[in-house]
Amino acid sequence: MAEAGEFTLRAYMNGKMDLSQAEAVADLIASEHKAAHDIAMQQMRGGFSDELKALRTQLIDFTALIELELDFSEEDVEFANREQLNELIHNLKRKIQSLADSFSYGQAIKEGVPVAIAGKPNAGKSTLLNALFNEEKAIVSDIAGTTRDAIEDVLTLEGIKFRFIDTAGLRDTTDEIEAIGVARAKEKVQNARILLYLFNREEDTIEEIVAQIKALHHENLTLFLVENKIDRSGGFHASPFINQLQEALFGAYTQTIIGISSLEKTGLDALKNLLVQEVEAMKLTGTTVVSNSRHKAALDAANNSLIQVAQGLQMNLSGDLLAQDLREALAHIGSITGEIDVDEDILGSIFGKFCIGK
């Protein structure tokens, strides 16, 4: 019987594909929706590999010149123009950082974009979760604090997988169990890419909303202000309350406010469209997306080596020290595609994740 990943391993060993393409085969098999499928196909077709090869070629050329200087060190000959090398290192660092930065998007697409639903108790968070899935996922009650722990489920919208997380209502409480739920809610928001913050102009104050948003905010979070229960307030409309909320939060924290009724299922299509548009906007047009944690670690390591080279150039370090950091950067980039010797344990880990044969 064929071993797990045997045929893909043979293709890799015979030079039919590089290691990143082989890993993309596993990602393609495991993909559950169109967005993840597209990322895997792009990588399997060699888009990522081509970018890495271009980076390595430029580095190899300059490393060769630096190391050539070592052979003529006694003659004080400089083959590599330091200004050109500095410019090259700057450009390579920027490109590698761009690839590394795409990992947060790639991982979110691969595993499902985490969307936290938060707000005060009885904001309608559980009702919204149930309405999005069109089934009873969470207990709904008029009693505040019913949700004590986070409830998660996955929903695919237009080929993109979202992980919706219904969290405990945010408030100060002396109830020990509820306090644990509130702490977990805040933790879930910290790990989310999108936050749907539910409020209602008749039940919340500007000060409460702004204070909670500022406490929950983090760099990678996209915030949607969602006024719920608009069926009780004559629909979503401009008012001094909404104007003040926009003045306090627009720009620094969000650009989006929308009205819905979870109970009446009003405005849910518009909310879903906003979610899809936001994820599509996360990916810069024409860029490669990194979704593999091994690749991300290698890119970070390569970038750190190039930072050492840049610092060495500023300090006018000798060629042998520069060459060492350049070789390390080359090794890290080459480890992604398998252009350097790859440890058998790493190969075993990669191909062992395949299903039988593939």
TrEMBL record:
Keywords: tRNA processing. GO terms for molecular function: GTP binding; GTPase activity. Transmembrane segments: none annotated. One of its GO terms (cellular component) is cytosol. It comes from the Eukaryota. Belongs to the TRAFAC class TrmE-Era-EngA-EngB-Septin-like GTPase superfamily. TrmE GTPase family. This is Uncharacterized protein. The lineage of its organism: Eukaryota, Metazoa, Ecdysozoa, Arthropoda, Crustacea.
